[in-house]
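Input record (Table S2, row 153):
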Amino acid sequence: MSRETDGIIDEVSPHTVKKFELVEGYVRDWKEIMLNNSSCGELIFIDCMSNSGEYKHRETGETVYGTPVRINRLLREAASRYPRKNVSVIFNDKSAWKIAHLKALIPEGSGNYHVSFLNEDCNVLLRRLSHEVCGVRGKHSTILTRQLLTGML
Ligand SMILES: C[S@@+](CC[C@H](N)C(=O)[O-])C[C@H]1O[C@@H](n2cnc3c(N)ncnc32)[C@H](O)[C@@H]1O
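Output record (S-adenosylmethionine complex):
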């Protein structure tokens, strides 16, 4: 998808920028549908391979923000409009440097908006989350994983 420049800020192709926009557009609509549903008390967005949140456009050299930064903006704003619903975002990457960079771009959660940064192999993380989140919270949670999104797109 992109070629590493300094190990933290990757170069990004126009194709990948379009993918960021598609995911952002999907979540923009999805969150409203879910939060308006009375059976949905909690929304969780997980990006298992979140990268650093920031890229350099391969052709223009401009800064481009990735999925975590875009989704954080959307869901943080939505959480403020639905104070009775919990909204959580979980960002994970196997690179500790990239997660540290992302953490500096995204403010802490507050109130009903929860932000977590993890630094694990996504295969291990997904296995753990499938037990912790699905097992404990069951049907009350809506989980949108990177895998699901990729499949839809
Ligand atoms: C797939 S892209 C991330 C794109 C990002 N989700 C976005 O939309 O902005 C590449 C990232 O996956 C991470 N990665 C690759 N294999 C991984 C693994 N097994 N576990 C966690 N992260 C991984 C890399 O460190 C890199 O930062």
